[in-house]
Specification:
This protein is of the alpha+beta class and 294 residues long. The protein has helices at 63-74, 97-112, 119-129, 133-136, 173-178, 184-200, 203-209, 215-221, 223-234, 256-268, and strands at residues 4-16, 22-34, 36-41, 46-53, 80-87, 141-146, 150-153, 161-166, 241-242, 249-253, 273-277. The chain is globular and about 55 Å long.
Length: 294
C-alpha cells in the first residue's frame, strides 16, 4: 500500500467546543508523496510492527498499530500480523502521514480479513484514531467539517504544482491549537471564501488564498519557523503558506519549471528539505494484501 500525504488547501478553525476540540472547515487534497505499508498474515499471534525510513513512533504509539488493534477488537479477530512501514512522509509536518498510514491499514485489513465492512463503519473507527484519518478513507479531495471527521468528497481538482518545504522543526499540534484564539469575524470570512471557491469549482483559486487560521499561532510559538518563512520570502519565493498546524510550508505555481527553480534556491542556501509534488486526479491508494511473504 502507498498511503499518500495530504495538503490543507484551506483551514479555518472556529471556537473550541466543550469536549476541547475546535470546529473546523478545511479542504484537503492528497499529493504524490507516499509512505509504504505492507501487511501479511503471520503464524504467530499478535501484531508486530517494524519501521524504516524517516523516524516514526514505535509499537502502540504508532497509529498503524492502533488501527490494526482497533479493527481486530471491534470484529472479534485474533490478530496475527507482521506489518512493515517505510516512512517517507515527514512526521509532525502537517502532512497527515500517520493518519494516512492508519487509514491504509484499516482498508488493507478489511480486505485481508475479508470483513466486508462498509466505508461508514470504517469511518467510525477512523474517527476514534484521529480527526484526519476519515479523510484518507475517501479523498482525493474533500471538504471536512466538525472536528475534521465529517467528510464530503468533492469532484473538483487542483492543477497547480506545489513545492513542499519541510524544515527540521517539529511543531506540536496540541500546542498550536491551545495557543490559538479565534477571531470570529475573520473565521466567518474564511468560511465564506471557501464556499465561494467551492461553488465555482476553483480549487486553484482557493489554494492561492493561503487560508490557514493556525499560521499565526504556529509562527508565534516556533520562532525558527517564522524566520524560515521570512528567509524564503526574501528570496522572492512567495507567497509562502503553511499546511495544517505546520511545520510544512509550501509555495505553488502553474509552472513546474518555477517549482524546480525554487527548490534549487532553497537547497543552495541549505534552508530545508523540499518535495516537488502535484495533486491526485483520483484515489491512488494502492492496496496489496499478502497471505504469504511480503
Amino acid at each position: 500500500m502507498r498511503p499518500p500525504a495530504k495538503l490543507n488547501l484551506s483551514l479555518v478553525v472556529l471556537d473550541r467546543q466543550p469536549d476541547g476540540y475546535h470546529n473546523l472547515h478545511t479542504v484537503m487534497a492528497t499529493v504524490n508523496l507516499y509512505d509504504d505499508l505492507h501487511i501479511r498474515i503471520s503464524d504467530k499471534p499478535g501484531i508486530r510492527l517494524s519501521c524504516a525510513g524517516l523516524p516514526s513512533p514505535k509499537g502502540h504509539e504508532n497509529l498503524v498499530y492502533r488501527a490494526a488493534e482497533s479493527l481486530a477488537r471491534h470484529n472479534n479477530v485474533q490478530p496475527a500480523l507482521e506489518i512493515y512501514l517505510n516512512k517517507r512522509i515527514p512526521s509532525g509536518a502537517g502532512l497527515g502521514g500517520g493518519s494516512s498510514d492508519a487509514a491504509a491499514c484499516l482498508l488493507g485489513l478489511n480486505r485481508l480479513w475479508a470483513l466486508g465492512l462498509p466505508i461508514e463503519q470504517l469511518d467510525s473507527l477512523a474517527a476514534e484514531l484521529g480527526c484526519d484519518v476519515p479523510f484518507f478513507l475517501h479523498g482525493p479531495v474533500a471538504y471536512c467539517t466538525g472536528k475534521g471527521e465529517i467528510v464530503m468528497e468533492l469532484p473538483h481538482r487542483c492543477r497547480r504544482y506545489v513545492l513542499l518545504i519541510v524544515p527540521d522543526i517539529r511543531t506540536s499540534t496540541a500546542e498550536v491549537y491551545r495557543n490559538y484564539t479565534c477571531d470570529r469575524i475573520r473565521a466567518e470570512e474564511g468560511v465564506s471564501l471557501i464556499r465561494y471557491f467551492l461553488q465555482r469549482g476553483d480549487l486553484d483559486g482557493l489554494l492561492t488564498q493561503g487560508i490557514n487560521s493556525l499560521t499565526g499561532s504556529a509562527m508565534t510559538l516556533f520562532e525558527p519557523l517564522r524566520i524560515l518563512q521570512h528567509k524564503i520570502e526574501d528570496m522572492n519565493i512567495s507567497p509562502v503558506h503553511m499546511s495544517g498546524s505546520g511545520s510544512c510550508l509550501f509555495v505553488t505555481s502553474e509552472s513546474h519549471e518555477q517549482i524546480t527553480q525554487w527548490a534549487k534556491q532553497i537547497h543552495k542556501h541549505n534552508l530545508a528539505q523540499t518535495f516537488e509534488v502535484n495533486f491526485h486526479d483520483h484515489g491512488e491508494l494502492f492496496v496489496e494484501v499478502h497471505h504469504g511473504g511480503v
